[in-house]
């Protein structure tokens, strides 16, 4: 197994993936000025207590070390550590001494079986990025101390079992990206910091659409109930704040039985991409307005809600009438859905060819047909004779 390092003045130590046989060199490095230690993908199960002697260490990666179970308390002596990557390890909890890492800027623990974040996490005053996505055993409320991470700009707790976000999150005045997708145990959204420019909220448990009109710095907004239960008191009134988010460039509104008011879309002059659950999420004025802008539209059709094949045909026909635009198509059928891909493609292709003859050359983009066919073929529909 290759080990890249220098001799007595080693600053960087990288052990490539595979069985870990670098313990001797690791012991030697403890007496050096090591600043970067990358053990990602190795079979290492633990770090020696003497790891705390690496007083100059700034970067430590144990990412995808699938046998790694626990950090020693001595990790707290690494007071110059700025980056800690524990993604894909088997760590269940962090040592209490983690609170001593005052210069830690990035901590990644994606896809770990970690069950809780330590209360002392608020003492990590330099933290800029905290990533615990897909930590499915991370449950309960996020610690209120998270509101003390005043340098935090990226927080990703998507695909966890967290049930509540503390109101102290509003104290994070530098927070720019917040991902709460698939946190299906969260019931409500607290007031969020005005600094946010990217917010992803996709909960099957979402019942009421929050008023986010105060988040005027948002550039990306994804709001969805993941085809869950119908919203309580579904009404376009619940979306009458959307037009106030004038900086939006990417908008996803996949809310069951809640159409998008065209008056709100008309205020979004910077909007580049719009994602809706179905074509009937538009009113007629909204559809005309969006297609006139020449921006990508993504429609997510749900096979459980409509006849799958008819839905695809109608959506394709709608697109083919507007091929002077760049249109995206995203459809997610049920696993056992069988469709005649040949018939679907033939209908779409015929519409495209007819339009090709009608449109002047400067409005026809040959890539549309190719991209559309590639998109349909990628769905792996059942072929018929």
TrEMBL record:
Residues 51-135 form the Disease resistance R13L4/SHOC-2-like LRR domain. It comes from the Eukaryota. Keywords: Repeat. This is Disease resistance R13L4/SHOC-2-like LRR domain-containing protein.
């Amino acid at each position: 197994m290759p080990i890249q390092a220098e001799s007595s003045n080693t600053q960087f130590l990288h052990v490539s993936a595979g069985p870990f046989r670098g313990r001797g060199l690791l012991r030697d490095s403890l007496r050096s000025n090591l600043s970067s230690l990358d053990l990602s993908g190795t079979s290492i199960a633990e770090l020696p207590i003497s790891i705390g002697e690496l007083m100059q260490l700034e970067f430590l990666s144990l990412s995808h070390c699938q046998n790694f179970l626990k950090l020693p308390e001595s990790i707290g002596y690494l007071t110059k550590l700025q980056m800690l990557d524990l993604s894909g390890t088997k760590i269940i909890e962090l040592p209490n001494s983690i609170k001593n890492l005052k210069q830690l800027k990035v901590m990644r623990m994606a896809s770990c079986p970690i069950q809780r974040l330590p209360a002392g996490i608020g003492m990590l005053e330099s933290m800029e990025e905290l990533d615990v996505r897909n930590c499915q055993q991370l449950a309960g409320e996020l610690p209120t101390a998270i509101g003390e991470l005043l340098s935090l700009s990226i927080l990703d707790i998507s695909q966890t079992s967290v049930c509540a976000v503390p109101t102290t999150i509003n104290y994070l005045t530098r927070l720019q990206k917040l991902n709460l997708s698939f946190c299906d145990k969260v019931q409500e959204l607290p007031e969020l910091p005005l600094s946010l420019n990217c917010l992803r909220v996709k909960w099957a448990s979402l019942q009421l659409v929050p008023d986010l009109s105060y988040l005027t710095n948002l550039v990306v907004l994804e709001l969805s109930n993941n085809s869950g239960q119908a919203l309580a008191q579904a009404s376009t009134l619940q979306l009458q704040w959307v037009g106030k988010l004038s900086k939006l460039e990417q908008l996803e509104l996949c809310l069951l039985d809640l159409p998008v008011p065209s008056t709100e879309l008309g205020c979004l002059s910077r909007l580049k991409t719009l994602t809706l659950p179905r074509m009937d999420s538009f009113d007629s004025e909204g559809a005309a307005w969006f297609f006139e802008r020449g921006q990508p539209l993504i429609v997510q059709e749900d096979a459980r809600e409509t006849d799958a094949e008819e839905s695809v045909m109608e959506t394709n026909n709608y697109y083919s009438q507007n091929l002077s635009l760049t249109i995206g198509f995203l459809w997610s059928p049920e696993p056992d859905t069988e469709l005649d891909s040949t018939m679907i493609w033939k209908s779409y292709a015929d519409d495209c060819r007819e339009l090709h003859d009608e449109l002047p050359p400067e409005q026809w983009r040959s890539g549309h047909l190719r991209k559309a066919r590639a998109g349909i073929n990628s769905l792996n529909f059942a072929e018929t004779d």
